[in-house]
Each structure stands twice: as structure tokens, then as C-alpha cells.
Amino acid sequence: MTLTQSLFIIALLIAASAFFAVAEISLAASRRLRLRQMADEDDPRADKALRMQEQPGDYFTVVQVGQNGIAILGGIVGEGALSGTLGSLLTLWLPESTASNLGFVLSFLVITSLFILFADLVPRRLSMVEPEHLLLRVLGPMQLCMTVFKPIVWIYARITDALIRVLGLPDQRDERITSDDILAMTEAGARAGVLAVREQQAIANIFELDSRTVASAMTQRDRIAYFLRDDPDHVIRARIAEEPFSTYPVCDGDIDHIVGYVDAKDLFQRVLNNLPISLKDDSLIRRVLLVPDKLTLAEVLDQFQQVHEDFAVILNEYSLVVGVVTLNDVMSTVMGDLVSPDDEEQIIRRDENSWLIDGITPIDDVLRALDLEALPNEDEYETLAGFLMVMLRRVPRRTDAVNWGGYRFEVMDVDSYRIDQVLVSRLHADGSVMPVPDAPTSTLSAVAAVAASGPAMSTLPGAASKPEAQHPKPQRETPSVP
Questions:
Q1: Where are the membrane-spanning stretches (predicted)?
Q2: Domain 346-453: which topology?
Q3: Domain ranges of the chain
């Protein structure tokens, strides 16, 4: 066999080996979601590829038979093709025995390098980049090879199946897609720039609805604006003007005896028509949905759907009112800062090393902002204020602080035993607080500076806050829920 014929055969063997390498990696790396999308676009090859992924045993058997057979032939042909030629050239400078041995070594290195580069590395890398398209191209020839080598495939497949059963190994790939898989895909899309970071965060928030309780999104008890059943007309009108919100609970005597709720649209109609407002009129009061405080946000959404309501009162195990929640509250939790104005953020980043956080901020949002995996005893609280109470084992006071996870959580403002603001600062390894660039001379003045730039506390939508004597909070007008 001449040198030209040997080189031609080696080139064919490299091409065949590259084909099998592409066939192997493209099937393994192809995404079922992408193949299913291509099948929905009327590409019949995609359906065949999906079926092949479900039962890939014969397919991979053909690939291994082909690759190993080609490797053996490549060694035989390569050794005879280049050893003699290289040995003859080296005899010009070396003794014949040395030149022959060195020619064999060089022939082995050249043939092996060609196979590694052009039959392995390059095709496998291409197959990882465009697996679905390459799989559809090689699928037809591979099915032909499976037909030709069917007897050999059958023998090896039966032996392999027996070994897998004996060893107790799985023989099929788990194709179930979990929420973790979807979140990982969205995070990868956000890093690649295909998906906006805010959109990725909204998707992550949707999956958190099953784990976040309703307490993380509700309006707290002390911020609820409500009417008493016997409130006169002028009191109701004054409250509407002072706290214009979409819904108001109606109570009999106190907030723990809720008889229903009234929609602001019904009250406005009476005002516009110069009619007196009396909450003793049962036609104004709607039946209120009562839900326990241990429900998740997903369960609350199901309750809203079942009763066709968008407002609910939340009770604890002692049947005391702990808050109210609206459909808008739940959607705000999902959408995050996509729907929340900047001046109503619960978490304000002052600089790269410190944050000013509302005490009622859900702990999941705190973890996300601080890039923490978890906080201790998470099952005992829902908010940052609850975390501080659990860690301190008492009701926190102003200037109380907790160091954990490389951060210092310092209580800056307490209003009637309720934690309003917490300053979170990053710590050095030695436990000292990292410096704030261009910071005010004191921590309290820093908080005052932030507070002066805008309200640090968020008012949740759907219900108003009761005015407080010493520290009135700016309120947000919530549009009527349709």
C-alpha cells in the first residue's frame, strides 16, 4: 500500500470516527425541550430523536462498536503508513535501528494526535455547542448503521442489559423536570443575557409561593384601616379622605370582630350621589374571606380563585386578626420591584457594605439582598424583626444588634415595640464593621440622611395604615382592586 493510499484511508477513518463522536455527544447533550419545540414545528426528525433518547441503548452500542473498530484499524494502517517513510528519512542522520524505532514512535504520535484533534476534540466541542441540529443530521446515517450492525448490536445489548441488572444500575434517564431545573435554566439565561435579571427574579418568586406563608405579604394588624359598624357618616367620610384605599374591613366593636368588608367604590358612589353612608346597611357590607396565618401564598391564591374574591382577613390560632392580604399583595410579592415604586422599597442599599431594611421585610427578601443561603431557626419567624427577636430572645430595643453570617443587624428605630428600621452592615473577618465611603459621622445621622431622601418603609397595598400619634408614616394610595 502506497503512502498516498494509506493517508487517504487514515483520513476516511478520522472522518468516520468524528461522525461517531458527533453522534454520541449530540444525542447525550440535546435538550428535550428544544427537540420537542422542533417537533412542534413539524420536523419529523425531531420526533425520531426524542424516541431515540428514550431508548438509547442500541444507538450507543453502534457508536462504541464503530469507534473501537476505527481506532484499531487506524493503528494498523497508521503504523504501516508512516513508520517506514519516517524511518527512511531518519536514516539520513541516525543509525538504521535507531531510525526505525524513532520512526515508529513518531508515526504513533502523529496518528494519535490526528485522531485526538480531528476525530475527538473538535467534533465533540461542536456537538456541545449545537447538539440538536447536529443530532438531526447524523440520525439518518446512524439508523442505517444500526440496521447493518443489528446482530452485533443485539449481542452486546443483551450482555449489557444483563450486567446492569446484576449490578442493580438504572437503565433509563430520569426525564422529570423539577422546579430546581427550571430555576437553574433561568439563572443561566440571566447570566448569558438572554433573560433580564428582573424577569428571572420574578420567575424565582413564583416558585417561592409554595414556601412563603401569607404572613410575609400581609398588611400587619397595626397598619389596617377599618370602620366600626356604628361609625357615623362624617367619620367614614373623614377616614376615606385621610386614608384612600380600595377596601376597608368592617368591625363590630373592635378589629377582632370583623363582620365583613366594604369596597371603596361603593362608598364613593354614595358620596358622589350625596347619599348618607351607614355601615348598618347590609347591602354595603360584603362577606369577607378568613384564612389562617399558616397558609402559603399559593394556597391563598387558590382560596381567592374558589370564592372569587381578592381580599382576605388573616387569623391566628386564637382567632385574632393578625393582618389582611389582597390579590395585589400576592402579585407584588411575585413581581417584586417591577411593580413597586423606588420610594417604597423595603430594602434600601446605602452603599456596597450597608443596607437599611424595614423590620417587616420577609426573610426571603433579606436573604436575597444579602446573598445569604439561610438564617438560623428559619421556621420560627417570617420577617427580619422576627429573626432579631429569636436571636435576642426578647423584644428588641433601639441599638440592639446581632452579628451573624458576616453581617451586623442593628435596630435603629422601634415604634410601640415594633421594629421599624434595621441597619445591616457587612463585617470584616475580625468582626469590625466595614467602613462606609463618605459616611456621615454617626450611624444615627446616616439613618437620618437616608430617611430624609425618601420613606424607608413600605406600605403594603390593599389596606391602609392607622395613623400613629408619634410617628406618622407616609401612606400610599392603592387603586381599587377590579
A1: 6-29, 70-94, 100-122
A2: 3.30.465
A3: 3-167, 185-209, 214-334, 346-453
